[in-house]
Every structure is written in structure tokens, then in C-alpha cells.
Design goal:
This protein is α/β, with parallel strands linked by helices. 47% of the residues lie in helices and 11% in strands. Bound molecules: coproporphyrinogen III. It catalyses: uroporphyrinogen III + 4 H(+) = coproporphyrinogen III + 4 CO2.
């Protein structure tokens, strides 16, 4: 095996947990649920732990990253932890000048727009990932039978921040670059794919039992451009972790038209955003694909009655898939009342228990 003898996936507690069962198409005891951005500003204990400490520094302090990863598992009894880190951490560890500006997102010191800019990018040294390995090891030591999900940003989403130099709405610059300077785009896509693959491998080797590739902004692409300029880079990142045998989830927003291509890129489970009902997603995928999703985050603030009625519809549509991991259609909004999330987890567990 490519995993150490002590890896959590070798324990039956993790391997037969509801989360791992659903990710691998086996029927779980209850429908597993976790939330993208379950760690974060919705939790008072997160705000306390982060007091006076920058986002990137928090991610690179192993004890703190482990503690923040564990907080939502303790509080909400979710079926999986997601490693507390960020899609820009691999570029930070490679030596790229990047920071996360509160309320805004990742901002680079200098955007990456030409072939020369790409050629000047530093490579990520494997030893630079040691704080990540340490944080993952500390986390899984505390998690018991609850699996840890590792993640990385998909090459397009990462490259979109690099080319824009910061967050943008339409990702015009990277979409222009593909056509105007395909050589520079190709080199950047390969850099981002290598770097994301290294980040994923480090988390899996240190104890993550599943991975999720976040292509949050892929929905800004048409299918033709996705297939021509993006898919092979995501496929590379997914292929690099295939040898570990951990389930690979692929998620993006606004990807209704891209689901089959994103699945073809090499995913085992498809994450679906809130815009497309799961039964329709399954139909577009041709059947047989485990799905993850897709409670509308807006419903978290709509009151329990509306939220649970919406959840019933999501669970019902999820029956169209061989197995279903419940999640939101995108991340937990920072303003969310955390007691709503705790109650939602209990509601999903009790209404789906076999
Ligand atoms: O709980 C989890 O989901 C795990 C941790 C996680 C974070 N970022 C923590 C974080 C994960 C998986 C990510 C991935 C990530 N980062 C994505 C893909 C997922 C998605 O949401 O689409 C993207 C696009 C980023 C880039 C990024 N980082 C943005 C847009 C922001 C928000 C900036 C803001 O202040 O609103 C960040 C910062 C960030 N990453 C926060 C967290 C908890 C907020 C930091 C804070 O508390 O101030």
C-alpha cells in the first residue's frame, strides 16, 4: 500500500464510517453530513482562537490548525473534518508573495500574467509542507473514527487568483490568457497542478482519508474551454493521488454544464452546488456516481421550518444517486447561527438512520 500501516484508512472505524461508506458507494448507517467552511467565523471558538493571528499564520501553526479543524466536529457532530487551511497555502509555501485579506480573499504582491512571470515562479519544496503534515497528524490523532478530508484548490481556481492578482467576479483575465497566450496558460496550469498535487499528497500521507478538489470558479468557463484548457490540469492533480486509494471529491459552483467533464477528470464523487437538484445532476452524469451536496446556504438563515423542508427535498433528490454525502451547495456564511448547523446535522442523522 502507498499508505503507512498506521494510516486511519487502515482502521475499520474510519474505513466503515458513514462518510467513507458513502464516498465509496456502500450504504451507510445514516446519511453522512459535513459543511464546506464548517471551521470559520460562524464559530465563536474559532474567532477566539484566531484573535490577533493572521489567516495564513493560523494555517501554518500546526497546533492551531489542528484545533480549528476539530472545533466543528466537536460542536456539530459532523461526519467528517475538513483540514483547516487554504487553497493559497501551497503557493505561500513555495515562496509566492500572497496574503489573505479579511473580507476580501487572496491577494498577490504581483499578478502572474506572462510566460516570464510563470517561469519565475518558485517550485514548492517537499520539506516546506512539513507544517501541513504535522497539523494533519495532530488532527487525526484526535479524530478517532471521524475521517479527515484533505483538499486543494483546482488549477483553474488557483490560477484565476494568480492571474487576476486577487479576487474577481468574472475571472476575465485568466479566461483571456488561455486564448491570447496559450503557452503561458499551459505553463501556469502545470505549475498549479503540480503544487496542488503535492499539497494533496502531503495531507493524504499524513492521515487524510479522502480529498476534495475545489474548483470553485470553474463555473465561469464554458465546457469547450474547460475541456481544452483546464481539464487536463485538474486530471493531473487527481491522478497524482490515485495510488493512495482515497476517494476523490470534485466540487465547483455554477458547474451544471461541466459536471460530466469534471467527473471525467478523474473524480469518484461529484460535489454539486445549490443551483442544480441532485437528481438532475445524477441524470447529467449518466447514473452510478455518488454525489455530495447541496443545501442552499441561504436557507441557513430562513428558519428551521423552511430549512428542514428544503433539506427533505435535498435528501429525496439524493436518492437518485447510489450514495449521497450531505453538504451545502457552497460554504457556511460567516453570519450563520452555529446552533442551526448543529440542529441540521441532528435532523439529517435522525431522518436518515437505518
Ligand atoms: O472549513 C473549511 O472548509 C476548511 C478550510 C478552508 C478555508 N478555505 C478556510 C478559510 C477551505 C477548504 C478553503 C478553500 C478556499 N479558499 C476556497 C475554495 C472553497 C470555496 O469557498 O469556494 C477558496 C476560493 C479560497 C480563497 C479564500 N480564502 C477566500 C475567498 C477567503 C475568504 C475571505 C474572507 O475574509 O471572506 C479565504 C479566507 C478563508 N479561508 C477563511 C477561512 C475560514 C476566512 C478567514 C477568516 O476567518 O477571516
Amino acid at each position: 500500500s502507498h499508505l503507512s500501516g498506521e494510516h486511519p484508512l487502515h482502521s475499520t472505524g474510519v474505513a466503515d464510517s458513514p462518510m467513507l461508506k458513502a464516498l465509496t458507494g456502500r450504504q451507510p448507517q445514516h446519511r453522512p453530513v459535513w459543511f464546506m467552511r464548517q471551521a470559520g467565523r460562524s464559530l465563536p471558538e474559532y474567532r477566539a482562537a484566531r484573535e490577533g493571528i493572521g489567516m495564513l499564520e493560523s494555517c501554518l501553526t500546526p497546533q492551531l490548525a489542528a484545533e480549528i479543524t476539530l472545533q466543528p466536529v466537536r460542536r456539530h457532530k459532523v461526519d467528517a473534518a475538513i483540514f483547516f487551511s487554504d487553497i493559497v497555502i501551497p503557493m505561500k509555501l513555495a515562496g509566492v508573495d500572497v496574503d489573505i485579506v479579511p473580507g476580501r480573499g487572496p491577494v498577490l504582491g504581483a499578478p502572474v500574467r506572462t510566460l516570464e512571470d510563470v517561469a519565475a515562479l518558485p517550485e514548492l519544496e517537499d520539506s516546506a509542507l512539513d507544517p501541513i503534515r504535522e497539523a494533519v497528524a495532530l488532527t487525526v490523532a484526535e479524530l478517532g473514527d471521524t475521517p479527515l478530508i484533505g483538499f486543494a484548490g483546482a488549477p483553474f481556481t488557483v490560477a484565476a487568483y494568480m492571474v487576476e492578482g486577487g479576487p474577481s467576479r468574472d475571472h476575465l483575465r485568466p479566461r483571456t490568457m488561455m486564448h491570447a497566450d496559450p503557452e503561458a496558460w499551459e505553463a501556469l496550469g502545470r505549475w498549479a497542478a503540480r503544487t496542488s498535487a503535492q499539497f494533496l499528497a502531503a495531507q493524504v500521507e499524513a492521515g487524510a482519508s479522502a480529498v476534495q478538489l475545489f474548483d470553485s470558479w470553474a463555473g465561469s468557463l464554458g465546457e469547450a474551454d474547460y475541456r481544452r484548457f483546464v481539464m487536463k490540469h485538474s486530471a493531473f492533480a487527481l491522478q497524482q493521488v490515485e495510488k493512495y486509494g482515497v476517494p476523490r471529491i470534485h466540487f465547483g459552483t455554477g458547474t451544471a454544464e461541466l459536471l460530466p467533464a469534471m467527473h471525467e477528470a478523474g473524480a469518484d464523487v461529484m460535489g454539486v452546488d445549490y443551483r442544480l437538484p441532485l437528481d438532475e445532476a445524477e441524470r447529467r452524469l449518466g447514473g452510478g456516481v455518488p454525489l455530495q451536496g447541496n443545501i442552499d446556504p441561504a436557507l441557513l438563515a430562513a428558519g428551521r421550518t423552511a430549512l428542514f423542508a428544503h433539506t427533505d427535498r435535498v435528501l429525496e433528490a439524493g436518492n437518485a444517486a447510489p450514495t449521497h454525502v450531505v453538504n451545502l451547495g457552497h460554504g457556511v456564511p460567516p453570519s450563520t447561527d452555529p446552533t442551526v448547523l448543529t440542529d441540521l446535522v441532528e435532523y439529517i442523522h435522525t431522518s436518515t438512520r437505518k
